[in-house]
Amino acid sequence: MAPAIAPMKLSNLPENSFVKALAESSTLNSVPSQFSFANDSRGSHSDSIPIVDFSLLASDNPDQRAKVLGTLTMPLVNHGIPDSLLKAIIDASLEYFELPEADKRRYEAKSASDPIKSGSGSVINAANHRVHLWRDFVKSYVHPQFHCPDKPQKLRKVLAEFSEKTRSVLRKLLQDIGENLGLEKGYIDDTLKLDSCFQLYAANYYPPCPQPDQAIGIPAHTDHGLLTFLIHNGVAGLQIQHDGKWFNTNSPQNSILVNTADHLEIFSNGRYKSVRHRAVVNSEATRISVVMANGAAPDAIVRPAEPLVEQDGRPFYQPMKFIEYVETMLSNRLEGKSNLDCIKIQQDD
């Protein structure tokens, strides 16, 4: 049996230290103790996640549309966003991570409400110890107000176009979701003020890890917002949880993975469930993902849709201003699903 590799100890590791530089160190042969997050990163290969053709949502057959929208963890193809744009946003995001650390440190987060943030991040584990994540990130609010790092220069144009294209996909999906829920046409648009919908761009850089089962890219969590769109550079790493088991999501090239997020669960009064997921790491290749989190207008009050409350007899979630929910969740540093649990209305049967 090979001897166990003792974890490295890095002294005075900054809170927002960048993992890329650490992973490229020639002396790195084990996970530093500050990153120790034991996990079973293996997931079942899932053939149960259907690939959805976006054009089917234009079908005249309501049963076909309802089947497509029955669950919303799906790789979406024929979505209308050019392959060249998907490649461009991945490439521009990679260029950001390759910038000198001084350029990236300009955007170290001072508060949850900062419109641009960059760093690595950490979580509090079950033992109440702070654990650093095996990833670097950059996040920016891109709608209704557009914010973008100054470098690389190409990112601004590409990100603005990506934001516009994904908003079009979002509104089409939500229109059909509203119909599937039995809501009047335009109800979701008007109630959630989608002309001013909130969008958060997040790019993640997961470098190779010497001990993938001893570190985590992002631990299990759900997303704020209505629907989350994700693309990646072809390296797998996203897993979703279903019935207590973890499943790999192997989406086709140039598809967009769509996940249901917290506010769609709230708005639908629990009919759609927010998808619990995590990002695991590997020892072979760098993974890059680009996420667009899509939500209601920042000042919109998100609550269960009134027609659905009337059907159910009561709301199952408390109302909350959208931006307050986002900032509360971001300040909690991805501690599971606690934010959604906090606004669930607990009542005896």
TrEMBL record:
Transmembrane segments: none annotated. Pfam families: 2OG-FeII_Oxy, DIOX_N. One of its GO terms (molecular function) is 2-oxoglutarate-dependent dioxygenase activity. Residues 193-298 form the Fe2OG dioxygenase domain. Keywords: Dioxygenase, Iron, Metal-binding, Oxidoreductase. Coiled coil: none annotated. One of its GO terms (biological process) is coumarin biosynthetic process. Belongs to the iron/ascorbate-dependent oxidoreductase family. This is 2-oxoglutarate-dependent dioxygenase 19. It comes from Sesamum angolense.
